[in-house]
């Protein structure tokens, strides 16, 4: 079962269970998926769905931070609940050590390809390669920090 089909089945289950919070979050996700399909005229595969879920989770994190600063805990709690529903659709995330190991391997391969050690000026090239390999498997903020560490050392 593809991730898209699983989301549709979960939406039906939430309707049957009359779970309005979960249903609302899943509807937001399906609307974002449909928007992507219409805008880009593509059929979504699991990687694209994971990218959409990642984007929605990042939006929730930003909102939680803003609501917490504004002392609106009611809204922050709502966003946190939505984020938990969305996180169920992400694959297992890599740990910080696993991310660093993957990044170091990619930096070593890029250094070999360039014929010189990769340095901080190669951040864009490394991030492009890392994004392609680790998209959906790791938090890109942690990945960026690991790339900076690998290029500095």
What value does the average pLDDT take? 90
Alpha plus pi helix count: 7
Q: What percent of residues adopt helix (DSSP H or I)? A: over 70%
Distance between the termini: 43 Å
What would your notes on this structure say?
- This protein is mainly alpha-helical and 153 residues long.
- Helices cover 78% and strands 0% of the residues.
- It is built from 7 helices and no strands.
- The chain has helices spanning 3-17, 20-40, 46-69, 73-87, 96-114, 123-134, 140-152.
- Helix 2 (20-40) packs across helix 4 and helix 3 (46-69) packs antiparallel against helix 4.
Structure characteristics:
mainly alpha, about 150 residues, about 80% helix
Which helices and strands, and how do they pair?
Layout: H1 3-17, H2 20-40, H3 46-69, H4 73-87, H5 96-114, H6 123-134, H7 140-152
Helix pairs in contact: 1-2, 2-4, 3-4, 5-6, 5-7, 6-7
Quick recap:
With 153 residues, this protein is mainly α. The chain has helices at 3-17, 20-40, 46-69, 73-87, 96-114, 123-134, 140-152.
């Amino acid at each position: 079962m593809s991730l898209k089909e699983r989301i549709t089945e979960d939406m039906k289950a939430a309707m049957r269970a009359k779970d309005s919070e979960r249903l609302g979050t899943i509807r937001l996700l399906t609307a974002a998926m449909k928007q992507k399909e219409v805008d880009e005229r593509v059929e979504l595969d699991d990687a694209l769905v994971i990218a959409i879920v990642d984007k929605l989770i990042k939006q929730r994190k930003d909102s939680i931070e803003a609501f917490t600063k504004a002392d609106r805990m009611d809204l922050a709690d709502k966003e946190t609940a939505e984020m938990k529903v969305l996180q169920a659709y992400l694959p297992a995330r890599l740990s910080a050590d696993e991310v660093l190991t993957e990044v170091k391997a990619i930096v070593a391969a890029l250094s070999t390809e360039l014929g010189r050690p990769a340095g901080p000026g190669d951040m864009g090239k490394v991030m492009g390669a890392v994004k392609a390999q680790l998209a959906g498997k790791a938090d890109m903020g942690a990945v960026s920090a690991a790339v900076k560490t690998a290029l500095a050392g």
